[in-house]
Here is the input.
Amino acid sequence: MRARKGKNSFSLQELKQLNIGDYVVHSDKGIGQFDGFETVLLGVNKQDCIKIIFADNDVLYVNLTYIHKVEKYASKEGVEPRLSKLGSAEWTRKKSRAKKKLKDIARELIKLYAKRKMQKGHAFDLDGLWQKELEASFIYEDTPDQAKTTVDVKEDMEASTPMDRLVCGDVGFGKTEIAVRAAFKAVQSGKQTAILVPTTILAQQHFMTFKDRLSQYPVNVEVISRFRSKKEQTKILENVKAGITDILIGTHRILSKDVEFKDLGLLVIDEEQRFGVSAKEKLRQMRVAVDSLTLTATPIPRTLNFSMMGARDLSIISTPPRNRMPVETFVMQENEDKIVKAITSEVERKGQVYFVSNKVHDLEKITEKLRKLMPSVQFGIAHGQMRPSDLEKVMEQFIKRNFDVLVCTKIIESGLDIPNANTMIINRANHFGLAELYQLRGRVGRTNTQAFCYLLIPPVSLLPPKTLRRLQAIEEFTDLGSGFRLAMRDLEIRGAGNLLGAEQSGYIDDMGFELYQKILEEAVAELRAEEFGELFKDRDDFKSDFLKNSDIAIEIDSDAFIPADYIKSNTERFEFYRQLYNVPTNGELDIIREEMEDRFGKLPDEVLDLIFAVKLRIASLMTGFVKIGLRNNRLTAEFPSETNSEYYETAFPEITEFLNEIPGAKIYQHRKTLLLDIDVENRDEAVEVLWRIKQTAQFVVE
Here is the structure.
């Protein structure tokens, strides 16, 4: 990844970190502003605390044991949250309202899942010779993610219940090829396939791709969109109804009442979030009985996977194709010489260029200006307000390389896949959102040819800092697959809204995206435990829910913190604290430790004690314990609430039996809390005991 240097640049570290004054969300207290760290005395030991300022300048000091309760506030760009009032019940009410609404949404998804499970679907035939031949003819080598997704899709199709799989992958990472293979498999079993796309251009693009890939086989592929005349559409619909057409590609026109399939077996939906409410409702009805495969380049947060609860299986394709190079991206002030150089360099290497502007009425003016600067270069214009036939003609000419530069609006944002186009110039890039810029840039660099993207902006002095930061983020995140990380909140929040409904954006604005996801997880877990336990009892990914305890608190009898004279930057200390208190394995803990030593020198005793506390935490994960203490060689652990009935029915008896073998171990009740006490000889023994308890609990699950 290239690091930018320069007076006004922001480093990647700065983009990731928390700065003093940034909004943060405390899951129990509400929204405040980060005000650095203060080292305080807790009992006889020193620890860093996070200082947070709330409404009316009220201050809260958060022990680092509870750092998991503090997240940087993240919502859509431009949203300024209101500071919460400490001691007010409003925050609790707000969370309760959100959880109730999320439960309602989740309940509907689970019901859909249950309905699909009860439905008898078509079990497609196992792969035949032609299927293997088709896949072997793919000119690129499958990436590991692409290969795994292909297998998952085919296994879903061969099952007797209808498939509903969401394939989420960066632009150009091979989602269309997976759809080609699935459609061909359906045709081999005598079934028809419908491929639904949001734009006419994308429909045409898919039509050409499918025709090309399946040209060696007796498969009838058709496309229906506004590019087709009424007479052509009538003929296509007759063929679909008669079963002559095997694969029908089209826009929402496919959902019209006059479209009747003889024997539809597979529905492929590309970028479902771009369809309207009525189209989505029709799709939901179709999905129950027909295998469906949904493709999206909008990064869906991994943590939203649980929200689908099996109502939709999820595949993420994040490995880039082999030999694919990152798109070299540059933010620069508008400069005629540089624009001419960028275009002529691409044309001289026999490539093509996209010149994107966000206003239709500017396109003619821009094109005339460019023609005067480069009279030997051929230009074309494309935008959504053109007549369908004219737009189709322009796109066909560009694909056939009849002209060099396509001056266009963001109509090319999704779907257009022209391997020969490897330079993009985005005019007034400051008027585009992060998601739009990322999606647009994905239209170039689709092969192993080096691609370039130029973001043209007014003088830096005229741009607001947030706008400049957004542009520099897109410039710096050039590594392949970074869509899933760059997605930074803008794309992820869009993904959340798409999956769970636009009305969710209000809750996200109120509490920030991270807490929203956490509440969603709680809502889903409660539903599974209270209402749908029977439905998920055999799902491996839910079997160990009752042992989860990522919120576990750790207390030890020594100073465990990062001294300010060891890591001076507040933001860097916060970043290391976050990493340490979220690390899941000792191997990853060793990597963090090595990085600290490499960057800041020998670890002081306080940091070594902090790392030991983290080791205790790792050993305690998935034991069900909610709190661990170690003082004077006495290990204490707090068992989960009695409401966790599955824990006490399954894991607890086994853990009790194991503890009977440890001399001096005792379990006792203190008020409403069940506690464990064990005398240990040293710290290592404390860690060892916790690991053995974890193994005992895991054995119950397995």
Notes: The domain at 328-479 is CATH 3.40.50.300 (Rossmann fold). The first strand starts at residue 23 and ends at 26.
